[in-house]
Each structure stands twice: as C-alpha cells, then as structure tokens.
Design goal:
Elements lengths: L2 E5 L4 H17 L4 E6 L4 H7 L4 E4 L6 H10 L7 E4 L4 H13 L3 E4 L6 E2 L10 H9 L27 E5 L13 H13 L3 E6 L4 H10 L3 E5 L4 H10 L2 E5 L2 H7 L5 E6 L2 H6 L6 E6 L7 H10 L4
Parallel strand pairs: 1-2, 1-4, 2-3, 4-5, 5-6, 7-8, 7-10, 8-9, 10-11, 11-12
Length: 306
C-alpha cells in the first residue's frame, strides 16, 4: 500500500476513541503515504501528532458539494486503500463516489465497501473495539502501550498543591448527560477544603456551568475558553483527581491515566465507551441528575481519592 486515505469526522469523543486505531494503521503501513480527511477543528490536534503526511479539511456542516469537490481533486492521488472510520450516512455517499471514480479498495461499515464490517447493536461493543473489528478485515491489529504525550504542552501555571480537574460542561444538545453545575461546585468546594487547587476547563458556552464553582471556590485555575485538547491533557497530567461528565474533554483527560471519576447515565452506550481501569471510578444512574453529592463524596472517601 503506497497511498491510503482515512476518513474520520465526529465529536471530540469520537476522535479520542479513534486515536489508538489511527496509531495502529500507521504502525501497519509504516512506509505508506497516509492522508487524513477530518474536520477543520481537529487539524491542529493531528498536526501535533505528526503521523500523517497530509491533513485535509472536510467540514460536515458545509455544503456537501464542497466535500465532493475535495474528493474529486484527490482522484489523481491514486489511493490503494480507503479506510472509512466514520461509517456514517455521509460516508456511504462517499463510498458510492469512490466506487465510481476511484480504483482503491474500501474498508467501511457502510454499503459499497470491498471490506465491509457489519456493526453490532449500539452499546454491545465499544466505539474503539468496533473500529478494530472493522480493521481486522484488512489485517490491522491493535498496538499496545500507546503514548499520548505528543499532546503535552508546557503550562504557565505550576500548582504547588494537589490539583483537582473539574469538567462540568457538556456539548450542545447533550444536557441529558450533564450533572448539575451546582453539584460540581459542591464537590469542588469539598476538594478545596481538603487542600486542593481547582482547575476548571470548558468552552465559552460552558461559562454558566462553571460559574457556580468560581462563585464558591477561591483557589481556582480558570481555563474557560482556553481549553484546547492539548491544554486539557496537560492539566490532566498534573491532576491528582479528575471529575467529569460523559463528554469529549473528559475523554481527552482520560488519556493521562490519572484517577478519574465519571458521572454518567446508566445506559449501554455510556458503559461501553467510558474508559476503565484500576484508576477509574464510575457513578451511574438512570438519570445522571439523580446522583447526589453525598454519593460522590462517599466514593471519594471510600477510595481515599482526596
């Protein structure tokens, strides 16, 4: 394989789930030129990683014809293999386009692929394991002991006390996955009273979710609207404990392999995709909003997480 095109759009969490998959593709095809078609907002992340020869922007919210023009321009690249890691209705149309105008083999979960993996019902396999099952059709195996320190940056803040990283926001339209900000504030105050410095991260849209913490705590590193993935990961590396909703920034933070408490809805999808390990703690409820502050503090004290 001399030239390979990989397609990966999706949420920030989707990108995190795909990172070990992308690393394994690179490991399998060491000498190939690999093009990654992704959304513009992720170009900076992948530029930091530096494992792809070419990064191409394809924004799902833009005119679909613009995407087809981009694909048509790539026709002269004469790809040997196209790997669809998005497996969406959009990339189904891409597959039709590829079959008409390209000679490359296609690996996808959608129709018109040469190597097609039939996805299992949602929640019966993790997003990452599903992608690896797809790639097994073309002989790609998972590589172990992956390192994500390519995301690490030098921080201007250097806390002189234990750090608690709090992630109270969720993406737009995902309020059903959000624990109440006032409860996060009480947990932040609990940690502050235990001698921790609090770090809060989120986008500008998360400001109202973070405000209760800013109002109740004095020792706060406020990174609202200053939280690209590399900042999230770097603060996570410095943290003694991380507390998060089921959200993309939480999945970025989980890459640091620090003690982490997930607060989430009790459903198959969340249970399948939340990171696991000896350092991971999870509190589930049929509605995340029914989880009490006492439940979280009890878990913290039972496991000496303060």
């Amino acid at each position: 394989m001399k030239k390979i095109l990989i397609i990966k759009h999706g949420s920030l969490g989707d990108i995190v789930f795909a990172l070990p998959v992308l690393a394994s593709i690179r490991n399998k095809y060491i000498d190939a030129k690999i093009y990654l078609l992704t959304e513009n907002k992720y170009i900076n992340i992948f530029n930091r990683w530096n494992i792809f020869e070419f990064l191409l922007a394809d924004n799902r919210k833009e005119n679909f014809l613009k995407s087809l023009k981009t694909l048509f321009k790539l026709r002269n690249e004469q790809f040997d293999l196209i790997i669809d890691l998005q497996n969406s209705q959009r990339t189904l149309i891409y597959n039709i386009f590829f079959r008409i105008f390209y000679s490359a083999k296609i690996c996808s979960c959608r129709p018109f692929a040469h190597y097609r993996y039939l996805t299992k019902p949602q929640g019966s396999e993790t997003a990452t394991s599903g992608l690896f099952n797809q790639l097994s059709l073309i002989g790609i195996k998972k590589i172990d002991n992956q390192n994500y320190n390519w995301l690490k940056v030098k921080l201007k803040e250097n806390p002189n006390k234990p750090l608690a990283l709090i992630i109270p926001g969720v993406s737009k339209g995902a309020n059903y996955k959000q624990w109440q900000p006032e409860k996060f504030a009480k947990i932040a105050k609990y940690f502050e009273d235990c001698g921790f410095i609090i770090c809060v991260i989120g986008t500008y849209n998360d400001f109202n979710d973070i405000l209760p913490i800013l109002n109740i705590c004095k020792n706060v590193i406020n990174k609202v609207d200053q939280s690209p993935p590399e900042i999230i990961y770097s603060f996570a590396l410095k943290s003694s404990i991380i507390i998060s909703n089921d959200t993309g920034p939480g999945h970025i933070a989980s890459l640091a392999n620090k003690k982490l408490i997930w607060i989430a809805n009790d459903n198959k999808v969340s249970k399948a995709n939340l990171s696991s390990g000896d350092h991971i703690y999870k509190i589930f409820s049929s509605s995340v909003k029914d989880i009490t502050v006492k439940e979280v503090i009890d878990l913290i004290e039972k496991n000496n997480l303060y």
